[in-house]
Design brief:
By secondary structure, this protein is of the alpha/beta class. The protein is built from ten helices and eight strands.
Length: about 290
């Protein structure tokens, strides 16, 4: 069993064959995936919800969950109306996370100070909605590192006593009883260093690895994947982006998450199936799913 913890299948790149893509995923053993709700900006951040509703209860397809949030690319579009919509969508029963949110210094589609302000505001809203956060972090090509800023903001505005001694998420009672945030989060499509991964783990986050772990120049990602404990790890495709070897250059799809599992299995000396089973358990435990 495999779960693709992060994909974007709502876009027009799948309009011609979305049913077939989902059937291939189910045939490959992908039983569920999380459709990330960013859309083209705040007005379409319910895209994951709409897709989950469309395929609900159809056994030939994977189970679909959804998130909602404003991507750092569209941070300049955030306003009170957009936040109000997110708060409303966060109550939908298929919504299990808030994201992807964070910082992107590579493209800088939104000014960095705006990105930081919108990131902080969404952490506040996610805490109020009792939803874990899903983090996008992409540094620039120069010395300005989004990872340092992103992790510092998480430490300041989000993380507090997230994990119990055995690294299992504390229950919601701790949020209500002592005010601490026990919701945690995911560092999606991890591209940082081993040290960044350690800092994320210390903040109570799960680390999610995508198809770029198979790229020849991605040794830093493979090094992190060897260090992260298996019970703190997720796998994803980030479809339609970052198709893994041997599909690199193609449109990505959830069935390709098996290649990420195979790569991690080779690094850890276990089977792809064992990686799939453990990361699926991690996903369901983290999001408190049956």
């Amino acid at each position: 069993m495999f779960i693709d913890s992060h994909a974007h299948l709502e876009g027009n790149r799948y309009d011609a064959d979305r049913d077939e893509v989902l059937k291939r995923a189910k045939a490959a053993g992908v039983n569920a995936y999380l459709n990330i709700g960013n859309g083209d900006g705040p007005d379409t951040a319910d895209c994951g919800i709409r897709l989950a509703e469309r395929y609900a209860g159809r056994d030939e397809y994977p189970e679909i969950w959804a998130s909602i949030g404003i991507h750092p690319h569209e941070a300049h579009l955030a306003n009170d109306e957009a936040y109000a919509k997110l708060v409303e969508w966060a109550r939908h029963p298929r919504v299990i996370g808030w994201g992807e949110i964070g910082l992107d210094y590579f493209y800088d589609h939104s000014p960095r100070e705006v990105q930081k302000s919108v990131f902080q505001r969404q952490m506040e809203l996610a805490k109020a909605a009792k939803l874990p956060i899903i983090i996008h972090c992409r540094p620039s090509d120069n010395s300005e590192n989004a990872w340092d800023d992103c992790l510092a903001m998480i430490a300041e505005h989000w993380s507090a006593e997230l994990w119990s001694a055995d690294h299992r998420i504390a229950d919601h009672q701790s949020v209500e009883s002592n005010g601490s945030n026990a919701l945690g989060g995911i560092l999606h499509c991890f591209t940082g260093s081993v040290e960044h991964a350690r800092r994320g783990l210390d903040l109570g986050f799960l680390i999610s690895f995508a198809g770029n772990i198979t790229f020849p120049k991605a040794q830093n990602i493979r090094d992190a994947a060897k260090m992260v404990p298996l019970d703190r790890m997720l796998i994803e495709t980030d479809s339609p982006y970052l198709a893994p070897v041997p599909h690199r250059g193609q449109r990505n799809e959830p069935s390709f998450v098996l290649e990420t599992a195979r790569q991690i299995g080779e690094l850890r000396g276990i089977s792809a199936e064992a990686v799939g089973e453990q990361t699926s358990e991690n996903f369901r435990r983290f999001f408190r799913l049956p």
